[in-house]
Write a structure and sequence with these properties.
By secondary structure, this protein is an alpha/beta fold. It has ten helices and 14 strands. The two termini are about 30 Å apart.
Length: about 350
């Protein structure tokens, strides 16, 4: 039987800047099997690092219930993240629970997963069978030496490419590929990635290296501006700007003039897009964050475990969102000092 979301506020919930609540990113774990330097540098997150105890992490049933509340408040898009979500056991079971949810008007959710791709060869088909609709894979380079260095654990790029093929075979294509660009690290591979994605039919997204968290040693001079990427690719394959697919879309989209697909750039450093942000984030331990760069989360786990009704949980979420005025990227662009924030892996980038 399909689970309809409680019709708590079908018109949607808006914050102080008039932004609707439409997207929820759910972190199912704070753990990851990679140690990418822009997220979980190995010198900080070594084998002795204390991740969350199991009893502090939301169960799959708790995630489903909270997701249902968010859907009742206007969320149409659910994205499962981490850490690395595929390191949590039984992930297809959660996908099946979430895939059964319906919006108040009876529509299925846009249910997606962001992963490093290391387990897709084994999990792509079970996830698709459970109801997953789309998958995004983080892939920072096609060069094996560069990729091994950037993932921090010497993981070969060939296994990620095989996982991407498995996702496509399972019907999860076109696969979206996310590339975090860092000056002097992997920016020399932009054209290789673009050509590969064109040939393979994948959707490519280049992401400006962001000052998420406090441990990645972010510097502005290591950011590769989005328009530099567009100009570089456009010299080989002319590009034409595309309008957003929906209000609040993060990526600026460009299509190839010859019709062979599209690319996108996420320019949160050089061209902030806070003004129409519709995303909320639920951390693995059940805290609600209203911005990727939030310093403070709002606890939903303890009220849930204390027995609050769906209506009371919805009122709690509505109160948080209605008071939201986050616009970190715009503030950062004008700031001369670093603003407070927490680590990306803790709330699901």
């Amino acid at each position: 039987m399909l689970d309809e979301a409680p019709a708590i506020n079908p018109a949607g919930t808006r914050d102080r800047l008039g932004r609707a609540l439409r997207d929820l990113r759910v972190s199912v774990t704070d753990r990851c099997n990679f140690r990418c330097p822009y997220c979980m540098p190995s010198e900080v997150f070594g084998r002795d690092y204390a991740f969350l105890p199991r009893d502090e992490i939301l169960s799959y049933e708790e995630i489903r219930r909270l997701a249902s509340v968010f859907v009742g408040l206007g969320v149409h898009k659910l994205r499962i993240t981490g850490g690395e979500p595929t390191v949590r056991r039984g992930l297809p079971d959660l996908i099946a629970q979430l895939a059964a949810l319906r919006t108040p008007d009876g529509e299925p959710l846009d249910l997606a997963l962001t992963t490093n791709g290391s387990a897709l060869r084994q999990l792509a088909q079970p996830l698709a069978d459970a109801g997953l609709r789309r998958v995004t894979v983080s892939l920072d380079s096609l060069d094996d030496e560069t990729f091994r260095r950037m993932n921090g654990v010497d993981f070969p790029v060939a296994r990620i490419l095989d996982g991407i093929d498995a996702a496509r075979q399972a019907g999860l294509g076109p696969v979206k590929i996310n590339v975090v660009l860092k000056r002097g690290e992997n920016d020399g591979g932009i054209l290789d990635l673009a050509g590969w994605a064109r040939d393979e039919g994948h959707i490519l997204r280049f992401i400006e290296y962001m000052d998420v968290g406090t441990t990645n040693g972010w510097r502005l001079d290591e950011v590769v501006p989005a328009m530099e990427v567009i100009e570089s690719i456009g010299r080989d394959w002319p590009l034409e700007a595309e309008p957003p697919s929906y209000p609040g879309e993060v990526a600026e989209r460009w299509r190839y003039a010859d019709g062979k697909g599209e690319i996108g750039v996420i320019a949160s450093v050089t061209r902030p897009f806070c003004g129409d942000c519709t995303r909320a984030r639920l951390s693995a331990e059940g805290k609600l964050y209203t911005c990727l760069f939030s310093a403070v989360g709002h606890d939903l786990r303890d009220p849930l475990r204390a027995g609050l009704s769906d209506e009371d949980l919805a009122a709690l979420v509505t109160g948080v969102w209605a008071g939201r005025d986050d616009r970190y990227s715009e503030r950062r662009a004008a700031a001369t000092n670093h603003l407070p924030k927490i680590e990306m892996f803790a709330l699901g980038g």
